[in-house]
Amino acid sequence: MDKRFVNICFIVVFMLILLIPPLFSDKSGGDVSEEENRVLAERPHLDDLLNTPGDFPEMAENWLADNIRFRRTMIRIYRELNKIETHDQYWIGQNMYLIGEDGHHFFAYYSGSMIDKFSGEPILYEEELAGMANSMSNIKAYLDEKGIPLIIMFATDKETVYPEYYPKSIARNQGPVPLDSFTDYIRENTGADTFNIRAALTKEKNNYLLYNKSKGDLAHYNVIGGFFAYQELMRHIQAYLPDIRIMSVDEVSFTYEEEDIPSITLNEGLKYEALGDDFYDGLPMERPFLRGTAATRNIDPGLPTLLMMRDSYYSLDLLPELPQSFSQTLLIDYLGNMGNFRQYIETYNPDIVVFGIAEREIAIFANDLSRSGAW
Fold first, then answer.
1. Long-range contacts from 170-175, C-beta under 8 angstroms, 24+ separation
2. Which pTM was predicted?
3. Is 330 in contact with 374 (CB distance < 8 Å)?
4. Residues 27 and 129 occupy one common structural domain
5. Is the pLDDT of residue 288 over 70?
6. Which of 54, 142, 220, 277 has the fewest CB atoms inside 10 Å of its own CB, making it the most exposed?
7. Is residue 90 part of a domain?
8. Angstrom distances, CA of residue 133 to CA of 126, 177, 189, 312, 369
9. How confident is the model at residue 79 (pLDDT cuts 50, 70, 90)?
């Protein structure tokens, strides 16, 4: 066969390989990437070329990189290739994961930042701690004036409930559990009903697997852990709303779609509908909503209204039981929205307010609360 012909065929095939992904790319862009927790770049327009010609090449490159065909497949392949185990750890993107005892894997966050917390480093330092307590005291005083109870709930990371499976090579905290000490401080210095779910989950961990072992979502409790977190939260809510209903474990069914990864079914069926993002139109709020459904409406309009300022531990994927007991359940990300908190209260006049904060996100919450300047 003619060598020149072979070379031409090679070049044609190579060019096709380069052209196929752009040709079949998403021509609009702007979608939310759950894997990367960000909004993908939108396609630049002719106006962009005319108005900002210097920026246009970068805008076009960002759009193509974010919306090229087969992108998700390539990301999955990249993640698998990055699971190169070295010294009982591996990386997926910029997040570190640890390989512990008995096959348990642990999410260690950006560059392993959660390891120091396990070793006993305080969750917040003195000035940050006092600042957060002062801000939460101001929020409680504001809600007290309106007769609205405030509950502050801290979710636990896996190693706080299953420390026995954490890698033995990592130095262990020999003193009190940092989350417990932190929770006590916030409770004592704000007067708010403050708790964390460590004790509630520890009580159940010999009966159920509350966090996935090594597959699926390793950054949160699973739906079983979420159910017992829900029960603990509802017990605190019941102290203010005595007629509120708390579902029992007999009213749900846990099944396993994959090995060690549970799903949950509410035996009575859902009594609520998810509301679209436009429910919050007219209010200042960070968009797009990155944590799924942000509001629900129950079939019973006579139930109380719950407003929760929350992070990813409190999504309805993990707590589908929560809206069963409320006429409206308003789940608003605290990140970027704390400066608008008064407007949410004035608009919806909830019967109870909950701040739901993950253990590893406390410093982020405290920093965002401070930057809002509103409290």
1. 170/98, 170/115, 170/118, 170/119, 171/119, 171/120, 172/118, 172/119, 172/120, 173/118, 173/119, 173/120, 174/120, 175/120
2. 0.79
3. no
4. no
5. yes
6. 54
7. no
8. 11, 19, 6, 22, 11
9. low
Contact between 115 and 170 under an 8 Å Cβ cutoff? The reply is yes
In a shared domain, residues 166 and 58: no
In a domain, 238, yes or no: yes
DSSP bridge partners of 262:
256
**Which among 161, 141, 147, 303 has a CA at the least distance from the CA of 221?**
161
Largest CA distance in the chain: 88
Reduced to 3 states, what is the DSSP secondary structure of residue 306?
strand
Domain boundary among 48, 66, 81: 81
Average pLDDT value over all residues in the chain: 88
Tokens representing 210 are 């509350």
User: Is residue 161 within 8 Å of residue 205, measured between CB atoms?
Assistant: yes
DSSP assignments along 256-274, one per residue: EEETTEEEEEETT---EEE
Judge whether 40 lies within some domain.
Answer: yes
Tokens representing 58?
């970068």
| Amino acid occupying residue 373 | G
Q: pLDDT tens for residues 50-66?
A: 777 777 777 777 776 76
* Other CB atoms within 10 Å distance of the CB of residue 304: 18
Residue 235 and residue 316 in one domain: yes
Q: 20 phi and psi, to 5 degrees?
A: -60, -50
Residue 220 CA to its chain's centroid (Å): 8
Domain range enclosing 28? 22-81
144 part of a folded domain: yes
Q: Does the bond joining 288 to the residue before it have cis omega, within 30 degrees of 0? A: yes
Split into its structural domains, the chain has a count of: 2
Q: Are strands 352-358 and 150-155 parallel, antiparallel or unpaired?
A: parallel
- Are residue 330 and residue 203 in the same domain, yes or no? yes
Residues 6 or more apart from 248 whose CB is under 8 A from it? Answer: none
Residue 276 gets which letter from DSSP? P
